[in-house]
Amino acid sequence: MNDEDKKLIDDILEGGIRKRRACNQLLKDHIRYIYSLLIGKLNLTEDDAYTVYHDSWVKVLESIEARTFRGNSKLSTYFYTTLYRTGLNFSNRIKREPQKESTDILVHLEDERVSPSKSLEVSDQIKALEPMMNSLGNNCKDILLKWADGYNMKEIAQILGLANAKVVKARKSQCLKKLKKLLGL
Amino acid sequence: MTNQDNLYDIIEQYLNGAMTPEEKLTFEREYDTNPDVKKEVDDYILMKKVVRYHGSLQRKKEIETLYKEHRIKRTRTWQILFAAAAVFIIGFFYLANQPQTPLKLLDQYASITVEEYSPGTMMGDDSTTSPKERFAQVYKLKDEDAYQDSLEASIVRLEANERITSNTENAFFLGLFHFEAGNISEALAYFKKAESSSDVMAAEWMQGLCYLAQEDVPNAKRIFKKIVENPDHDYPDRAKDILKNLNRLE
Hints:
- The complex is a heterodimer.
- Helix content of chain A is 74%, strand content 0%.
- Chain A is flat.
């Protein structure tokens, strides 16, 4: 394994601020494959390419954290292969099953293949999601996004510069109550 | 900490697989039998999904922005490279098509020609009298400070010997001595004399180079044209090249 890959992987496994930087680095480093592979070779639309790229990025991160990526190849090669397989599966699924019509945002939570812009009702619900999240305030949004990404309380405290894990836990609880109210649960 | 906070902790432990088998069993039984617990758990999972979905939409926007920046940067890089290549190609053809001046042509052809007439294996001492042999010896000093003095000393010695100067066969190499010493007019006179020797072709060629040295383009063209028109000449290609450049000067 080369030094660059080793450092990136170590940072991801370390967690906290180093993990966040490493995740961002991983996202940026392979952006060129969107055109050369996803759009150019697999003929995906730009929108679908972003979805596939995002999914592949998540898969690569998960395999690094689960230590299933052992460094037998370069990280960029592994990323490329993951991107290719994910893109191909995505493309084949689109051809086999035409897009489902759904008016429920929950369907989209389960099936990211469905493009939000195709259904007016869903589009409205999804459009409502951003202002709803924004109405929580930046502090809540930051905490909840990091929590949903799988960071633990200690890591979130470190990344956001909060005092300790207890503070984060308490704030997260308050933010979830707000969100529950906004979602009408 | 409220009961709800405690419940959220427990739900997190369950979702992260951080429970013992017994704890997991207890939790699942509670979920199945207590509707309030079930609702809290379902709501918690749904909220996490909603936030994660929002996060993925945000990240896709970020990917889109990064991608568009990358495309702009790439396009700019290619534009710069193409522009640089275009400038290079245009510049190359412009410079390559610039006609060479007589002196540049002389620089190009004089040294290779003179070297051809001075095989380096000639041995001899100072008393060697043949101009050809003497020239080969002196030419070995070409890159040294003593070269010019050696040329002039040889010219004095050889021209003092009437037997040498009266022999037409020696005219060519006497011309070479003067040419190398920078005495172009004297060199030209010897090369003209050498037209009636066995070195006639070489003498004609060297006349052409003398005219280039004097920047006498009409006479240079006359000589090189004569060489080009002679199918048996030794230097038709070189003469053609020089003529092409001289014609473009006009």
